[in-house]
Every structure is written in structure tokens, then in C-alpha cells.
Amino acid sequence: MEELRRAGWYWGNMSVAEAKERLQDAPEGTFLVRDSSHSEYLLTISVKTSAGPTNLRIEYQDGKFRLDSITCVRSRLKQFNSVVHLIEYYVLMCKDRSGSETTSNGTVHLYLNKPLYTSAPSLQHRCRITINKYTRLQLLMHRKEELVHFVVFLHLSFRRVTSTQTRWQ
């Protein structure tokens, strides 16, 4: 829970009405995380949709978090070790999509785009987020280069071994 508190968009004990009021004039995709008012759930995501604010419960089971859903879909939903990872995943999924889409049956798509912070993040926190974002990308690129070098090394090693074996036969 400490990681969630540090994220800046966890509002703690907040009612449905308070969440709706906070999100009413916010752009679509603005979200916050709050304590759930339902006794069977710890947390809820409140998000502004094209139809107005709505709420998604976060389920916690066997040490993992996932979005609450109907039973037939629940087992297919991705599970996470933390609420912050869950939110980051769905924010990334929503990055390439545009908002205000309504399906033919009238259902509204949910987009998590912009957190509603409890207070303005400090410059130090914003710097840390930016550094972490680019460090992760650099680490991934570095690991990719290491993997390429390793594959080349294995290929060359295999060629040497097979050529040595051929000479001994």
C-alpha cells in the first residue's frame, strides 16, 4: 500500500459521491483510486467516461490484484502484484486509443489516461518518474543488445565445436 500512496493518485477514504464530484468536470480518461465502499473489495478505480464518472472495483485474491468482472471473463483478466502495476498496465493499453467511443449496443469504452493527483506532484517526483521511464527503456535496449551478442557468441561457439568434431572424425 505504501507504493500506492506514493503514486499520488490514491485518495484513500472517499465516497462514490465525492469521487463523482471530483471527476465531473475532468477530461475523459481522468481517474483516481480510492478505498472501496463495498465490504468485499479493498479498492475502486473511479474514472471519467464519455457518459460521466463510473467506478471499477479492484479484486484482491491470492496476493494478486485484478479488475472485477463477470465470472465468465474473470479468469482471463491479467493479474498484478500491486495496484500500481495494474494501473500502469491499463494506462499503457489506453495510450494508443482515442476516447469517446460508444459501441453499437450503447456500452461505453473506458480509458485510463490521466491520474487525478491528491496534490500536485513535486518536481522531485516528476523527475523520478521521467528518469525511471527512460531508464526502463534503456535497460530494455541494453538487454536486447546483450541478447544479440549472446546469440552471436553461441552461434560462433557452435560453429567452432562442430568444425573441431568434424576434424576428429
Automatic annotation (TrEMBL):
A GO CC annotation given for this chain: cytoplasm
Gene Ontology molecular function: 1-phosphatidylinositol-3-kinase regulator activity
Location relative to the cell: Cytoplasm
Keywords assigned: Cytoplasm, Phosphoprotein, SH2 domain
Alphabetized SMART domains for the sequence: SH2
Keyword Plastid annotated: no
InterPro entries xrefs: SH2, SH2_dom_sf, SOCS2_SH2, SOCS_box-like_dom_sf
Domain SH2 as annotated: residue spans: 9-116
Keyword Nucleotidyltransferase assigned: no
Stored Pfam families: SH2 (PF00017)
Biological process terms in GO annotation: intracellular signal transduction; phosphatidylinositol phosphate biosynthetic process
PANTHER family: PHOSPHATIDYLINOSITOL 3-KINASE REGULATORY SUBUNIT (PTHR10155), SUPPRESSOR OF CYTOKINE SIGNALING 2 (PTHR10155:SF7)
Name of the protein in its database record: Suppressor of cytokine signaling 2
Organism: Alligator mississippiensis (American alligator)
Organism phylogeny: Eukaryota, Metazoa, Chordata, Craniata, Vertebrata
